[in-house]
């Protein structure tokens, strides 16, 4: 960290899924009217990048791997305050699982070097694995810290931060470069300003292809993915048990019987 | 730009469009009578399966690899302060089942400090062998040394399957191990089976906010690694007669990576323990306002249970997040789950449907919660619950 921090934020574009967007009958994602948005968890990653830049100086680059339309997610990040945007996009990247995604992001980040801090969201709302951050750190050969809920201080190459485990909050210390996955507790993401949006319109999105990365073709996309999806289905509805109607008195009585049957009273 | 590795053989394609309706992601559109694959195609292969004329082809490179030297199922036995985390027993339960199906052995690995008690607990839970890495400097979980130990152990022992609990530790550790071993990892599985023909592990997990389930396999690399959600599988029974070999491994602490240091820690804020509760009374949006939780609390107290909640009630600020049950909250598996004013959206069901007995109170006879409940009462929770509480108290008084 000589002149400010070189920060890279990894973001993904995802369909905005709520229960209404899935057709229960056919099990299909309904695309009409479904917006593609920045993965909500990644907004915290972008925000943290911008805050660190504001505090320590430096630049924030946002990076995504995805189809060409993922440009709009990168523009949203620029509108929030990121400086530069990079999109790794190539049909050869299609079908990537977390291993191949993190390999590709790793190569892209090496191209964007030097970097001090890579910030990922905790997980995506579509794939929902939370694996890309830690796997990416492995490909870069740098440490990774998960569930980060506060970055306390960066001094020279030293960083202190806290993470939230199931039963405790830990304060950790390590040196840069580092990959972190940040939790929602870390900040409150800002909204894009009008000026930001205008800037985003003019900002060029740099494209990165498989060729640019000199990627091993057996390590990207479907070929580079150890896992395969073999089946997709809607969760089975269980069969219903007994359903009773009646006066509140009768209902209470029936529930009481059931609780007695189950030996809780 | 290269081409997508999926294509249609126009000679064979009849334009029936079955493929279009099979695509869960809408990434396949019919154009001029043929399917066209959009750039966000996930190559999941559902369309290939439904095509009656085998006209859709996914081009994959790579050769079939023999894995006969990979055998056995390894379970990561997580421990906190020398106590085995119960998810480990669940993994051993499932692991035993899978091992028996495959005719292979079940192993466990535990890392920590002063592990005698923990190891004793583990030996009676069905494993054939336990690998123990016990060293004072391994007391607290750190990604670096823990994942390095596991990498080495897997390379030595060559298990075909490796199961890790999807706790915060497991979900941080698992991807580091998988990336290093250059193998696949399926996150947060809720069901595991063996495909009898290929003997591959079928790993099923929710995705897209629980709206769909995906079954995932790992064909060309080993081990097949999965993190498994807590409170979904059944714990291995205690069996004091289990014959289990204990292997104490040497720990060469100075040669283990350890880049991130723990400077300090504090216990997380008071935990609402819905996870371990045997009985949970949950309230939903149907309560109308925050006062509803007073009624729910009353019932929970009368029954000696914990209070749960659906997401909107947490979003509204009626109750704190640790009470939230469901996909983005906690998965629970109590003996009895009482859902009051909860509609039963998939995301909520994802967190409670494996409860032994589900009792629902809802005004709407069509509410989906009734389709998973053992007993469904169609009525107003504000009228039913106070009467129920009275009856419980009466019964307790009369013995
Ligand atoms: C990615 C994602 C993750 C999610 N994660 C979770 C999660 O972890 N947990 C979760 O719960 N949800 C989660 N959700 C939200 C979920 O989809 C539903 O919105 C939510 O579970 C509905 O909560 P509810 O049943 O309390 O409310 P509603 O759906 O509004 O249902 C209220 C019910 O109460 C009944 N009712 C009304 N008045 C009364 C009365 N007086 N007496 C009796 N019954 C009455 C109504 O008939 C209705 O059925 C998630 C959604 C997404 C997209
Ligand atoms: N295709 C992608 N491009 C850029 N970043 C990604 C991509 N996929 C995942 N990430 C990052 O990795 C995090 C975890 O994603 P996941 O493992 O898919 O749940 C996300 O929050 C992003 O920060």
Detailed description of the structure:
The complex is a heterodimer of chains A (265) and B (399). Chain A is an alpha/beta fold and 265 residues long. Helices cover 29% and strands 30% of the residues of chain A. A 9-stranded mixed beta sheet of chain A has the order 11-10-9-12-8-1-6-7-13, sandwiched between helices. A two-stranded antiparallel sheet of chain A has the order 2-5. In chain A, strands 3-4 form a two-stranded antiparallel sheet. The mean pLDDT of chain A is 91. By secondary structure, chain B is an alpha/beta fold. Helix content of chain B is 25%, strand content 26%. Chain B has helices spanning 18-22, 46-50, 87-102, 116-123, 143-157, 168-180, 292-303, 311-315, 346-349, 381-398; strands at residues 6-8, 28-31, 34-37, 56-58, 73-77, 79-80, 83-84, 106-112, 129-134, 161-165, 185-189, 191-194, 201-207, 212-218, 224-228, 245-248, 261-267, 279-283, 306-309, 336-340, 357-362, 375-378. In chain B, a hairpin with a 2-residue loop joins strand 2 (28-31) and strand 3. In chain B, helix 5 packs across helix 6 (168-180) and helix 7 runs parallel beside helix 10 (381-398). Classes of the chains: A alpha/beta (265), B alpha/beta (399). At the A-B interface, strand 4, helix 3, helix 4, strand 9 and strand 11 of A face helix 6, strand 11, strand 13, strand 14 and strand 17 of B. The structure holds flavin-adenine dinucleotide and adenosine monophosphate. Adenosine monophosphate (AMP) binds next to helix 1, strand 6, helix 3, strand 8 and helix 4 of chain A.
């Amino acid at each position: 960290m000589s002149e400010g921090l070189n920060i890279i934020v990894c973001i993904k574009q995802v369909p905005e899924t709520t229960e209404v967007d899935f057709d229960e009958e056919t099990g299909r994602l309904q695309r009409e009217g479904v917006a593609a948005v920045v993965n909500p968890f990644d907004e915290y990653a972008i925000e943290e990048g911008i805050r660190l830049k504001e505090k320590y100086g430096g630049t924030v680059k946002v990076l995504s791997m995805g189809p060409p339309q993922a440009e709009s997610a990168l523009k949203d990040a620029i509108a929030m305050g990121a400086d530069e945007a990079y999109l790794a996009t190539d049909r050869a990247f299609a079908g990537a699982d977390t291993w191949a995604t993190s390999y590709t992001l790793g190569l892209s980040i090496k191209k964007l070097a030097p970097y001090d801090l890579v910030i990922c969201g905790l997980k995506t709302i579509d794939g929902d694995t939370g694996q890309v951050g830690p796997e990416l750190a492995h490909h870069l050969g740098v440490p990774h810290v998960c569930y980060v809920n506060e970055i306390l201080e960066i001094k020279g190459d030293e960083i202190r931060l806290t993470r939230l485990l199931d039963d405790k909050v830990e304060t950790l210390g390590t040196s840069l470069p580092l990959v972190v996955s940040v939790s929602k507790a870390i900040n409150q993401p800002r909204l894009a300003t009008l000026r930001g949006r205008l800037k985003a319109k003019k900002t060029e999105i740099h494209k990165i292809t498989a060729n640019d990365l000199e990627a091993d073709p057996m390590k990207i996309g479907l070929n580079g993915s150890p896992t395969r999806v073999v089946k997709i289905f809607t969760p089975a509805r269980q069969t219903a048990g007994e359903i009773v109607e009646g006066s509140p008195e009768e209902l209470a009585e029936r529930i009481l019987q059931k609780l007695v049957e189950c030996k809780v009273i | 730009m290269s081409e997508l590795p999926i294509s249609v053989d126009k000679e064979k394609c009849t334009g029936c469009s079955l493929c279009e309706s099979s695509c869960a992601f809408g990434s396949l559109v019919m154009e001029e009578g043929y399917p066209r694959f959009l750039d966000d195609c996930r190559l999941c292969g559902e369309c290939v399966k439904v095509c009656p004329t085998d006209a859709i082809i996914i081009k994959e490179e790579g050769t079939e690899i023999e894995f006969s030297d990979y055998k056995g199922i390894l379970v990561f036995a997580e421990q906190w302060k020398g106590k085995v985390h119960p998810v480990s027993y669940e993994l051993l339960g499932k692991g035993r089942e899978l091992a028996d199906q495959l005719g292979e052995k079940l192993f466990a690995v535990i890392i920590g400090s002063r592990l005698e008690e923990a190891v004793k607990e583990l030996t009676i839970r069905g494993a054939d062998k336990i690998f123990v890495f016990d060293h004072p400097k391994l007391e607290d979980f750190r990604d670096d040394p823990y994942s390095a130990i596991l990498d080495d152990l897997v390379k030595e022992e060559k298990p075909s399957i490796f199961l890790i609990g999807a706790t915060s530790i497991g979900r941080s550790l698992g991807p580091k191990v998988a990336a290093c071993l250059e193998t696949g990892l399926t996150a947060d599985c809720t069901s595991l089976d063996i495909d009898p023909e290929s003997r591959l592990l079928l790993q099923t997990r929710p995705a897209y906010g629980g709206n769909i389930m995906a079954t995932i396999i790992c064909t060309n690399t080993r081990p097949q690694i999965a993190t498994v959600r807590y409170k979904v599988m059944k714990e291995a029974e205690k069996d004091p007669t289990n014959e289990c070999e204990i292997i104490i491994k040497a720990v060469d602490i100075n040669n283990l990576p350890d880049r991130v240091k723990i400077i300090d820690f504090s216990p997380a804020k008071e935990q609402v323990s819905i996870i371990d509760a045997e009985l949970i009374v949950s309230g939903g949006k149907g309560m109308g306002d925050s006062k509803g939780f007073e009624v729910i609390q009353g019932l929970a107290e009368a029954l000696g249970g914990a209070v749960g909640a659906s997401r909107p009630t947490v979003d509204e600020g009626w109750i704190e997040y640790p009470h939230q049950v469901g996909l983005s909250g906690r998965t629970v598996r109590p003996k009895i789950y009482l859902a009051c004013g909860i509609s039963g959206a998939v995301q909520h069901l994802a967190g409670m449907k494996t409860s032994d007995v589900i009792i629902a109170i809802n005004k709407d006879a069509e509410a989906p919660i009734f389709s998973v409940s053992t007993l469904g009462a169609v009525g107003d929770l504000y009228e039913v619950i106070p009467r129920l509480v009275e009856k419980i108290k009466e019964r307790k008084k009369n013995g």
